[in-house]
Amino acid sequence: MARSSIHGQWSSRWVFILAATGSAVGLGNIWRFPYLTGENGGAAFVLLYLGCIAAVGVPLLMAEIMLGRRGRQSPIHSFESLAQDESLSRNWRWLGAMGVVAGFMILSFYSVVAGWSLAYVFYTGSGMFADITVEGAGERFNAMIGSAETLLAWHTVFMVMTAIIVGRGVQSGLEQAVKYLMPALFILLIAMVGYAMGTGDFGAAISYLFHPDFSKLTNKTVLEALGQAFFSLSLGMGAILTYGSYLSDNTSIPHTSVIIALADTAVALLAGLAVFPIVFAYGLEPSSGPGLVFVSLTLAFAHMPFGQVFGCLFFILLTVAAWTSAISLLEPATAWLVERLKWRRRHAVIWTGTIAWVMGIGSLLSFNHWDSVKFFGKNFFDSMEFISTSVMLPVGGLLIAVFAGWRMSRASSSDELRMQSTLGYSVWRVLTRYVAPAGVVLVFLNALGIL
Length: 451
Ligand code: PFF
Prior knowledge:
By secondary structure, this protein is an all-alpha fold. The chain is built from 19 helices and no strands. The termini are far apart.
């Protein structure tokens, strides 16, 4: 029943790894991971996060790629076809549809934060941060998010950039963006860690990140660690499934999944090691929220030699990392429209991009005109972030695990995963059938206060 994708294929296994890593590595690693770690008290959160990546993230990464390659379509149609293959209900397609909705919700706030990064390319590059004080760095950030016009301008630029690449299609668009820029980001991040090691309070950062104090754990911490694992690996909404649908038949899914997860985790930890020494050296508040990375790194760049150049370069690369992730957030819905309505890609992406852009306006207004509009105590931005990341991604992941582990036949999954060792396959199956679903359910019960 081998299918082929109407959208084309990655030109090599290496390109797939770069594209999937490009999707995984983004604001989630460099902006969200440090600020969540700070809000949740440090090492205990980090440890839970790492546990979630290993026990739930990796098996689900394999499951999503496997489902994508077997379905060879956007998530909605892939689930529909795969369910048909296994004589299951067509309703599984709603799982794909939930992913599309989650993708729009994530992209709406993601593009706003990517816009901050774009703005910082120009702020740092212009030299406006030279010798800035701690207060000055905080004030500059607040002035930016306080201006709806500024945020709207950058959000718009970023969304157009994303739509252009998705409109150009998988090969000519996505591949080119990731080939050189991802390795460059990695190298610059290592240089930043070197700088933080030399000038910041590295000891305090290491102890904060790696010596857990379990008394700091709350129910919310556990849920946020799980949500962050999904978010960071781009799991639970079909983004990786969609990328898997462009993967050639002879690529090993387990190997590539492990490489992607390792690269993603390494970038998150490096970001923590670059940010926290500065946070402690300057007496910043680790729990200060979404502005943490912008304020702390601004201070580092303000005082390092050639900081203007490094700062500008860093925010360019962060924007690129966000770009390659945003592309994967927009791709599933766009591919679906192309399949379903036979539209041209460019036509489809105008619609999907516009929907995400309009939703993003709600997010950017939450920092200024709408800052007192609250839903259950959270503003629009926080609500979007919480519902999509901490609720929809884990629920999506749970259902994907149920589909791949329980509803799909053993023959189908082992045929598609083609693992060399039967032990490896059995480990994957146990993790997917039992550990991943049980983990998600336990975390939800815990968050609801039932456990
Ligand atoms: N993984 C991306 C990051 O860490 O920035 C965000 C993301 C991309 C989440 C794609 C979900 C997704 F489907």
